[in-house]
Amino acid sequence: MKTTFSHQQKKGFTLVELLVVMTIMAALAGASFGLLQFIEKGRISNEATMCKSIAASIKAFTDDNTYPPFNPVKLKKAKPGRCDTVILTTDGENDCDLIGILANLGPSEKINVKNKSYIEYDDAGEPAGGLYVDADGKVGLYDYWGKPYTILVNQSGRNGVVDPFTGTMVNGQSALVYSLGTDSLGAHKDPTIKGKKGKKSNRSKNAPPADADSLTYPEYTPEELEQIEDNVYSWKEVQ
């Protein structure tokens, strides 16, 4: 009896087929990267809107009540700044109850005499992407990346706050608000107040002081400038 064996030759991928697959994979990777960039730009734009919303709500409260929305008793916890400006952080600890007052939550009834909410926000289940109230009742407001906002408020209620990065006066603003952005890193340096007016100061070329007679800003390193490059501001347009 004659037995016939069938020999099947294994066929591998041809060079053309490999090139086609690689081209498709590269196209998909490029599309994914482009989509991620598009999503990130959308988040940055939303954060810029939120920063402006916080600043606008502070102005609305100040216009209604003739004083800014923070608890002066807790002001000693805030870092003093320039031109009657206080620097607050919306982490539930260092904002002098500002977010609670604007949102009409917690201790705000003693200061928010209008008894209304001045700010729109999303409730967050964790300290990220909205207003979060912890187990102790502390009210914090966090950006998409899980970091609190930094707020500079003119405690006199007047308009005009110094840009914390350049030292220039931003007129027509009673508050400036910024988020640390995608890298969640910041290089905001507090100005150094000189003891004597009229003395020449060492000006920083990256951050010229608003008033050379009384204020000087430290020099920023290239690394620090890179950190603040992606910050999101209420007083600047998104690049």
Description:
This protein is an alpha+beta fold and 239 residues long. It contains 3 helices and 11 strands. The chain has helices at 15-65, 98-102, 222-228; strands at residues 79-80, 85-89, 130-133, 139-142, 150-154, 161-162, 169-170, 175-179, 192-193, 215-216, 232-233. Strands 1-2-5-8-11 form a 5-stranded antiparallel sheet, covered by helices on one side. The longest helix is centred in the first third of the chain and has 51 residues, at 15-65. The termini are far apart. 32% of the residues are buried. The model is unreliable at 193-214 (pLDDT under 50).
Silhouette: elongated
Low-confidence stretches: 193-214
Order of helices and strands: HEEHEEEEEEEEHE
Strand content: 5-15%
- How far apart the termini lie comes to 83 Å
- Give me the secondary-structure category: alpha+beta
Radius of gyration, in Å, reads 26 Å
Summarize the structure.
This protein has 239 residues and is of the alpha+beta class.
Write the SSE topology.
Elements: H1 15-65, E1 79-80, E2 85-89, H2 98-102, E3 130-133, E4 139-142, E5 150-154, E6 161-162, E7 169-170, E8 175-179, E9 192-193, E10 215-216, H3 222-228, E11 232-233
Antiparallel strand pairs: 1-2, 2-5, 3-4, 5-8, 6-7, 8-11, 9-10
